[in-house]
Amino acid sequence: MAVTGGILVLFLVAHMVGNLKIFLGAGDFNHYAEWLRTAGEPAVPHRTVLTLTEVVLTLAVLLHIWSATSLALRARAARPVKYESRKKSHARGYATHTMRYGGVIIALFIIWHLLDLTFYAVNPLGSSATPYDRVIADFAPDRWYITVWYVVAVLLVGLHLWHGAWSAFNSLGWRTKRNDGFLRGLAAVLAVVIAGGFVAVPIAVTFGWVG
Q1: Rounded (10°) CA dihedral 41, 44, 45, 50
Q2: Which of 2, 32, 168, 185 is the most buried (most CB within 10 A)?
Q3: Does residue 60 sit within a domain?
Q4: Across residues 78-107, what is the average pLDDT?
Q5: The three-state (H, E, C) secondary structure of 46-107, written as one string
Q6: Mean pLDDT of all residues in 45-70
Q7: Structural domain tally of the chain?
Q8: Structural domain contains residue 211
Q9: pLDDT tens-digit readout, 148-175
Q10: Distances from the Cα of 203 to the Cαs of 138, 159, 163, 206, 211, in angstroms?
């Protein structure tokens, strides 16, 4: 769970940095999108690095879901009787109690995101436009509901990441009584930075700051 989560966090950071290139203009953003497909050439064929990355990410997501399900079933089997009070549970806070449902929403968001900007099935401009133009069309002011959907999903990703990062620190044996507060703060900062970076793009496009 912690290892696959770490892989996904690294991807989120890299993806966020790439997305923020939209603030540098159409040329830089389109060049970045093209680089994703040509990375490694001519040493390896076109799109090889991107395809391998997609395979690793797919395996990480599937293993992450399998780990979450396995842990939930083991926890239920270990304590079939519910806690008399939520305060007695080691699971703490709103983030903990929404991890399961938030994970489902995040999964649906990933499917929509792939259909939108990878397969272009639900993008207004389809495959004929540039990556920059597709993003601008996606979050146009008249499509504010797409922006709302994106922002809500990303905030859930941030919530998931906040709890997940701290849990990973704990699972890997890094947490002690002395550094507990620091690690919780680090998890919160990581979640805020990543969620904020992703949310910045649709909001900027919708309000006309980019485009």
Answers
A1: -80
A2: 168
A3: yes
A4: 61
A5: CCHHHHHHHHHHHHHHHHHHHHHHHHHHHHHHHCCCCCCCHHHCCCCHHHHHCHHHHHHHHH
A6: 93
A7: 1
A8: no
A9: 999 999 999 999 899 888 888 887 788 8
A10: 11, 19, 25, 5, 11
Tokens representing 35 are: 């680089």
Is residue 52 scored above 90 in pLDDT?
A: yes
Domain that holds residue 14: 2-206
Count how many residues are written for the chain. Answer: 211
Greatest CA separation found in the chain? Answer: 62
- If you search the block for the tokens 């009584």, which residue do you land on? 177
Q: DSSP states of 123-181 as a string? A: -TTGGGS-HHHHHHHHT-GGGHHHHHHHHHHHHHHHHHHHHHHHHHHHHTT---TTTHH
- Residue 145 in tokens: 């509901």
Task: Flag whether 193 is in a domain.
Answer: yes
What is the Cα 105 distance to its own chain's centre? Answer: 12
